[in-house]
Amino acid sequence: MPPGILTLAAEEAPTLSAANTGFMLICSALVMLMTPGLAFFYGGMVRVKSTLNMLMMSFVSLGIVTVLWVLYGFSIAFGTDTGSLVGWSSDYAGLSGIGRDELWGATTIPVFVFAAFQLMFAVITPALISGALADRVKFGAWALFIALWATVVYFPVAHWVWAEGGWLFEMGVIDFAGGTAVHINAGAAALAVILVIGKRVGFGKDPMRPHSLPLVMLGAALLWFGWFGFNAGSWLGNDDGVGAVMFVNTQVATAAAMLAWLGYEKVRHGACTTLGAASGAVAGLVAVTPAGGSCSPLGALAIGAVAGLLCAMAVGLKYRFGYDDSLDVVGVHLVGGVVGSVLVGFFATGGVQSEAKGLFYGGGAEQLVKQVVGVAAVLAYSLAVSAVLALVLHKTIGMRVDEDDEVSGIDQVEHAETAYDHSGAGGGTAPRKAAPATAATTPATQQKKVDA
Fold first, then answer.
1. Is 65 in contact with 150 (CB distance < 8 Å)?
2. Burial class of residue 205 (count of CB atoms within 10 Å of its CB; 0-12, 13-18, 19+)
3. N or C end of the chain: which has fewer CB within 10 A?
4. pLDDT tens, position by position, for the chain (452 residues)?
């Protein structure tokens, strides 16, 4: 993602572009839509008794992170650099010192528009973590975790990766739209928290199948749609064609990953599932996020295919190693983010997002080394700090609901609601007179029919 100051020649005085401003506002709205899309995607994958809780764990991030972003998040992430680790600007704190027509660096969009666009990234990143914790986390503890995690993990890491002065940015690590700052960051945090809080009751023994695959497909479609704003918008509307390349590469990599995942399923399990199609598409979207601005469409196709295959293989690791990643956040977002970020070092063509070239285009190992350093740094920092935050909350206020509440259903306990109310199904204003019991209507006979 360009920081803005490098996009125009120094002698050119940028002026506000109505077209670019409007484009970026649309992209911001598309990225905002991704968080409800994620809620549907995750909500359909859990059991009925956890549906509302899963929706709320994503949706509440819109409230919490927005407030923090205005108060200090934007300033930490994109304020004046301090020690290459964090930023700070009093004008950005509270967004109170920004003029309505003040431009972001050397771009042609207002600071307010850039702040709004980046806010939506900050919102969805902690929401991604929630899928790993389905069925067992107190809603209040989760809300507090979001606030703490965004403050000490996401805001600083965003500065490292995307802000002028951030140490990974200055090193030359390429992350167009969030492979490290968003997906590896969230995936590593998810792994840390689930190792602290433990497995769901019945993990590995009880069936925990998705209750609504149509919801999953709807969520995946909304994510795919919104991701065009997420990726293409990350070039900030600059009129040099890079955003257009990223748009095309987003589509190509996503399609390739979906097909690779389905192919793996067909060979391994004998069927192509709707859940596999949705998960494969998300894996492709994740992998192309850091890489799509530096590669060709053929490179994007290869990156998507590799990500689809490796992520499909990775989701089964939780059973081998015994960690309960409820909705495969580690397998898709952490693994997909690592794949996409590292493959930049192979497929970067030069002359698109930057002049850096990967191994396959004569660039040697220099960019690959930078990419590996960026991946390792974000993964290690997020894993360690997230584990500490989760451990502190787990040992103080407690992060998990009681076992009985988990078994009976977290929706009713945490939200006093249920996702589906069938008590009035069938209509009518008065109850019908009960028919006399016969061999065909007794509970025992009905159960035999069900069992049959």
1. yes
2. exposed
3. C
4. 544 444 444 456 789 999 999 999 999 999 999 999 999 999 999 999 999 999 999 999 999 999 999 999 999 999 999 999 999 999 999 999 999 989 999 899 999 999 999 999 999 999 999 999 999 999 999 999 999 999 999 999 999 999 999 999 999 999 999 999 999 999 999 999 999 999 999 998 888 999 999 999 999 999 999 999 999 999 998 878 999 999 999 999 999 999 999 999 999 999 999 999 999 999 999 999 999 999 999 999 999 999 999 999 999 999 999 999 999 999 999 999 999 999 999 999 998 999 999 999 999 999 999 999 999 999 999 999 999 999 999 999 999 999 999 999 999 999 999 999 876 554 444 444 444 443 333 334 433 333 33
In a domain, 365, yes or no: yes
Q: Any residues with CB less than 8 A from the CB of 59 and at least 6 apart, and which?
A: 35, 36, 39
Domain count, the chain: 1
In the block, which residue shows the tokens 């970026």?
Answer: 24
The rounded distance, in Å, linking the Cα atoms of 389 and 393 is 6
Domain residues for the domain of 254 are: 19-407
Please check whether residue 4 lies inside any domain of the structure. no
Q: What is the CATH number of the domain that holds 84?
A: 1.10.3430.10
Residue by residue, what is the 3-state secondary structure of the chain?
CCCCCCCCCCCCCCCCCHHHHHHHHHHHHHHHHHHHHHHHHHHHHCCHHHHHHHHHHHHHHHHHHHHHHHHHHHHHHHCEEECCCEEECCCCHHHCCCCCCCECCCCCCEHHHHHHHHHHHHHHHHHHHHHHHCCCECHHHHHHHHHHHHHHHHHHHHHHHHCCCCHHHHHCCCCCCCHHHHHHHHHHHHHHHHHHHCCCCCCCCCCCCCCCHHHHHHHHHHHHHHHHHHHHHHHCCCCCCHHHHHHHHHHHHHHHHHHHHHHHHHHHHCCCCHHHHHHHHHHHHHHHHHHCCCCCHHHHHHHHHHHHHHHHHHCCHHHHHCCCCCCCHHHHHHHHHHHHHHHHHHHCECCCCCCCECHHHCCCCHHHHHHHHHHHHHHHHHHHHHHHHHHHHHHHCCCECCHHHHHHCHHHHHHCCCCCCCCCCCCCCCCCCCCCCCCCCCHHHHHHHHHC
Q: Is 90 part of any domain?
A: yes
* Assigned token pair, 424: 């009035």
